[in-house]
Amino acid sequence: MRRNLLYPSSAQTISATRRDFLRGAIGTLSAASISSAALASQTASVLRPTQKTIVVTFGGGARDEETFAKDGQENIPNLLHTLLPQGTFFSHVVNAGILGHYVATASIVTGSYERFDNFIAQPPPNPTLFEYYRKGLRRPASDAWVIAPSNGFQRIGSSSHSSFGPDYGAGVILPKRLLAAALHNSKSLDADRLSYLLQDSYEMPLYQPLQTSIDHELHLDTLSSTLKLSVDEFLQHARSLDSADELSIFITKQLMKQHAPSLMMLTLHDMDIAHSGAYSLYIDAIQRADRLCAELWSMVQTDPEYKDRTTLYILPDFGRDGDTDPGGNGFQHHRTGGAMARTTWMLALGPHLRQNTIVDRPIQSIDLVPTIGSVLGFSTNSSGKPIRELL
Hints:
- This protein is of the alpha/beta class and 391 residues long.
- The protein has one domain (2-390): Alkaline Phosphatase, subunit A, CATH 3.40.720.10.
- 37% of the residues lie in helices and 12% in strands.
- It is built from 13 helices and nine strands.
- The protein has helices spanning 2-6, 9-26, 36-46, 77-83, 101-110, 129-137, 175-184, 213-227, 231-239, 244-258, 279-302, 339-342, 368-376; strands spanning 52-58, 88-94, 144-147, 171-173, 263-268, 310-316, 343-349, 357-359, 363-364.
- Strands 1, 2, 3, 4, 5, 6, 7, 8 and 9 form a nine-stranded mixed beta sheet that branches.
- Helix 10 packs parallel to helix 11 (279-302).
- The chain is globular and about 50 Å long.
- The two termini are 29 Å apart.
- The relative contact order is 0.22.
């Protein structure tokens, strides 16, 4: 029964169709029949002692119609023609949990399907990847970070688990909160020009952020002391941008330059504008995420601290409803829980991974945490299973 829930025939069809689209788009693909022993041997010979890991999620997801299908490929030229040939692509990634952005992202970073209320800002009950990493490898607080455009992700860095918690969690940077704090203290700046960047989608947890001067000072202090970046520089960059995702990449670059953290998670959330029903903005956000992923990988390859020692994982938190699903609203929402909303993909790039390879077998989004733990050498207690093709 569980197998039918996770891997219905319609999901298998989506996966097979996705592979066919890719074969036509990029030509011959490598076989994915890689033995675990061969992978382990390859990994041991290539990996350096200090490894870097970056996880990028597409918050809100993107359907095949706008990405890997024939008519959607024009929206993802970088994923399709630059990144995928360099990595291993998983065409059948299933999310069997709650299809809410915060709780789904929490499931990805804990490796267990979380069941808490998506609309309340709260820490996950299960330990996160960051806590497993820092506690297991005795890493400092400066070595694990989350950059999340949505303000609702403020508690994603650590769990409420009694054996872990904030002492082992990741630092969470919310660019929107930083921008709001900077605007509050910058009387001469026209705040209306940037106000659209501060808005979250209707799906975000309904918490009330602190509005005290202490809160503003705290976030500005984080900006200046952690990133060694002046408020003026941050605002100057913000004025030249048109998305929160752009700001997140900017922050990520600063973190890489100043701290070279070994574990980072970045959520690209602009495409969640789909909930407003604005199809053109949804497409713009997909195209922007495609470009930003390529920019991030380029940053990795040109930074001596990251080049040849970094593994990048890119995956949506889940999909969106199909146009023909009578219970949904097409691209706009993800309400049905059908195969289109639950079946996504993942692209992994790194020095020890096979290139230009597609894996068709089903995996789950919660498999990422135990996989990273196995690669980096720390234990996890997640519900997922290590992905053998990535070990």
